[in-house]
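User: Last request for today: this protein with aspartic acid, please.
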Amino acid sequence: MLNFCGVDTNFQPFLFMKKIAIHWQILIALVLAVLAGVWLPGSVKYVDWMGTLFLNGLKMIIVPLIFTSIVAGVANIGSGANLGRIGLKTIGYYLLTSTLAILTGLLMVNIIKPGAGVNLNKVAEVDGLSGEQPSIWDTLLGIVPDNVFEAMVKGDILSVIFFAMLVGFFIPRISAKYSAQLVNLMNGLYEVMMKITMFIIKFTPFGVFGIVYKEVAAQTDVLELAKGLGGYALTVVVALLIHAFGILPLILKLVGNISPIKHIRNMAAPLLTAFSTSSSSATLPLTMGAVEKGAGVSNKVSSFTLPLGATINMDGTALYECVAAMFIAQYLGIEMTIAQQVTVVFTALLASIGAAGIPMAGLIMIGVILSAVGLPVYYVGLILAVDRPLDMMRTAVNVWSDSCAAVIIAKSEGEKLNY
Ligand code: ASP
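Assistant: Here's the final one, the structure of the complex with aspartic acid:
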């Protein structure tokens, strides 16, 4: 079966697992890893390569995926006559709601403190924390790289995002002969990167097995680990619920004078699809259908807001990334200064903009935040175990926020909606 991006969703490297859905595979791997870690901690040396290989694969795809996704996205928008008033409104809405989502997450993680007091043996040394932390100003200045290739080699994501946006912006502004070819090329490259990403994701059960096995084998208190991750997952879920059922409906009602209940009813199919596929990109055709046919938004508004939203507007992802980074800091017993928390908010926003609308994209981007505040990227492996259910929920919130933008902007353009 091919999904809308042309990704073969049925491909499975190990045929005997073909019949089992990937989230069940991950769950099975997780349970087996915990059991193995408890009963056979000494054998971890035979399987921890799985986790290393999987994380290497994820890291390998970050730069090319982000680069092609942003260049293609920005170039596709720029080639129409759509950038303008609607563009500014849309981007303004996206930045605002993503920031509100992050602040909700930050508030909840500071109130609940899911990582504090969770006493676990560390499996990696905490490198570089005693040294100088880069200031926000340095981080901001560093967004413009002095050498873009070096930025790519070092995996300096903010610089890669910046350069990709410039490339995407200027592609439609050169002679038509070349720009048409480049847009095609970038769209094609992006699809290839998506395919590679989906291919890597197929190995998640093995990666989870290797990583969780190693983590559990190093623990003296497995219950404590479960307790720690349970609290973290709960924090993400509570914050997501507040944002999706509190803040966004309030904006719908107050700014757009639109009934949140009617809108959520209209959006049920795309939201369930987002939940089951964990991909806002794959859900996009359904979202556009519901917003245009159900809500009555014009194609002019929906064709601009929704594809852009699927790429850059990820409220759920932004919120989750902030909570995850703060959780890892709490877990490591590191008190985050206000300046560091501001860096987390800022980088979570950029990371959610840079994340692709595919499963686990948000998880991959947490590395950006961790490096920005000087935490070891290795600890992304810690939260991998509970990523799938959280991915399902945050993807639904991502799509929900995009759809709210579309109806609010259509209303502000004087369009008459069906409800
Ligand atoms: N899966 C999310 C989406 O497609 C992105 C993420 O991993 O947070 O919207």
